Description:
Blueprint: H1 3-23, H2 31-37, H3 64-79, H4 84-97, H5 104-110, H6 119-129, H7 154-165, H8 172-189, H9 195-206, H10 212-219, H11 245-258, H12 262-270, H13 276-291, H14 298-302, H15 307-322
Helix pairs in contact: 1-12, 1-13, 1-15, 3-4, 5-6, 7-8, 8-9, 8-13, 10-11, 11-12, 11-13, 12-13
Amino acid sequence: MDSIVADRIRGVLFGQAIGDALGFGTEFLSRADVAKHYPLGLRSYAQITRFKPSEQWRPGDWTDDTDQMLCILDSLLSRGTLDVLDIAARMQYWLLTDGFGMGRTVYTVVRDPRFLTDPHAVAQAYWEASGQFAAANGAVMRTSVLGVWDYQNTDRMKHNAEQACRLTHADPRCIGSCIAVCLAIRELLLGAKDMAALTNSMLEKVKHYHPEMSDYFARTAEPSLEVFDLDEGMNSGKGNRIGYTLKALGCSFWALRHSASFEEGILAVIHEGGDADTNAAIAGSMLGARFGFSSIPSEWLTGLIYRGELESRAERLIAALDNPSPPDSGG
Length: 331
């Protein structure tokens, strides 16, 4: 594998984890409260003092966004292909043994007794019970690794993204979000340079999933992230849509279009508050694919508690893509 592509693959994994871990410091804060808590800006894990260190979390740890991505990655490395039921089993085990930070949709669907045998049906039933309204960001936040796996085959990649999304999220907006992120990461791995053209191309590929896709992609051309109102619901008098999948998708493509570096993009997203760890996890994966692992500030890398575990997975992923092997026949 080209060393530049390998660097970008590492960037996807570490970019997601770092965005998640740093964004946790401003999660569920309004933009104004972010400024109060971090008057000089949030730039290190050690500054995150809103939460007491515990068995579940310490500064430099990621949350459910990256844990769920790792459920997919570990399954891919074990099975050699996308195995929906294997991923479902890993997600349920994670929920029962950790589950830190999980959202309502994931919690409800994964705990259903039928989840291990027919997760897509469970997710579909949950969505229909919501009046076909539930379109949270809990699927798109975990999908980045599927932009790496099978990145040479767009049809398989799109299929994988949809199947992984529908484990918990059946709404077309969620599916379109996952596919857009995966396809964008693929193009970035292959060396895409024009971020405006890339964003417009992704819109053309997913706009049929829902009319609002076009609106949120159009906002990425605006000069300020405020156009996404990422802290909606954190200010009095506003409805709560901070966990909406198209907000997370839109702000991530905005960061891709407007950032001159990985650091600049991550900092822009986390200082908007709202569902900042999820927004920054998605943005981080795409920024990592664009700028590469080598562009990530060293202090953000060394401060990750489980850096070694992630490095090991990254090397195994790169090796697997270099030397594909038959799927694991074990149970």
